[in-house]
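Researcher: Please predict.
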Amino acid sequence: MNTAMFLSIPASMFPDQEILVFEGRRFDYQSLQDRVNRLAGGLKALGLGRSDRLAVLQTNCNEYVEAYYAASKLGLVFIPLNYRAKLDELRYMLTDSEATAVMVGDRYVELIEKLRPELGSVRVYISIGSTWPGMVRYEELLGAEPEEIEAEVDDGDLNVLMYTSGTTALPKGVMLTYGDFSEYVLNSVEPADGTDRGSFLLAVPLYHIAGLTSIMTNIYTGRRLVMLAQFEPGLWLRTVEQERITHAFVVPTMLKRILDHPDFDSTDLSSLQILSYGAAPMPLPVIRRAIERFPKTVGFINAFGQTETTSTVTVLGPEDHRLEGPPEEVEKKLRRLSSIGRPLPDVELKIVDEAGNELPPGQVGEIAIRSARVMKGYWKREAETAQTLAGGWIRTRDMGWVDEDGYVYLAGRKSDMIIRGGENIAPEEVEAVLHTHPAVDEAAVFGVPDEEWGERVAAAVVLKPGMQAAAEELIEYCRQRLASFKKPELIFFVESLPRNPMGKVLKKDLRQTFASRVGSP
């Protein structure tokens, strides 16, 4: 199925239904479809066809959505670029992908101009916004004859080349097919039927899998898509109130900033029905605060997934977030709040050891996934693809364990596991304890080299404003709540934790920063 149909099918049935809102601009299905058809015609007139790859460098905007659907309509490979990437990272992604066309917003033109002499594969440059020398202006392309026909594609054909965030190395190009997205969307939502499906607030970037799949699921199901160019907590709160948002997705750092914003208590959030979160581990104190402070009518969903799995594979649903019932039931739900829930119906999940053998409940190993929508592979990385997709199961490099009821718990990235004296220590277990200390705002646990033990457990800690705690106090706090060998031996107090754009802590940076300071906590 060509993913352009996620727009064209409902547009043919409900042309007057409002479906997209961005910065005061409002589009019904018909007007959005018309712009997509004209853009596709303009791209075709530039000579772009099935063998080409269109890269986009811009913050969220309606043009970005239109570009995805136009590219899919023509059978182009769509490459959403991280607009926070540095020059070297952009150079790598554009040369590695062999992009043939680049669409760029005004604020990023200077970066592209610096790279232009090195981008031999690029033959078309398109500007979103102003007129720039040597670039075709986006709005000019809309004057072309509309392309009404959708390219015939196979489910295995490449639709999107999405580069991972690269927390430990250069980003990898994840190959996602038309079939991958079709499987995800058709199994996630019902098709639009003209009824009111509410409004979804999109504040995560479209270069992230959660953002890109949102412009498919919501448009296909008929839920009005309200987009922010970039996340800002005050704007997020105002938009929920003004647009009567019913559904939204945030990452943990976004949720914390929303809760901390001075306008939170005075904002009308009564329209909100579902607040999903994911993309990084959620600290237990943050989600507990959210449950307490958001209206009781809000249902929370923890959606865990990867780019390689075409978004969500496990869900901790609203019922699991409702801390109600007999004391023993509430206690069980409190424990499960630190889980990522259970696999979706189209997903098989198991915990495996190094050899790929399945481990029983309670044992920590690597999370392996099998589904019809796992990636086709890594672009130009055959050996790494074969290793990751061994035996038809994708080895996620996320460590975890499963309880007796099938709930999955994360134990950190495989590369982040700490091995002290032959004992494996999951950083997230230690972080969960540190997060319960009244003075701790954020904590990240990592290993530092040690001649005697191999590694020592270290923690970078951000204290809450106005609060104090000594390193010895935090170490003792953990010793009382964990096996002795798991307690941090080194505490480093920092103003903030290094994170990637989606809120994941860059533990590689912490290890590099503090390895030389071992013995000087």
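Model: Residues 29-45 form the longest helix (17 residues).
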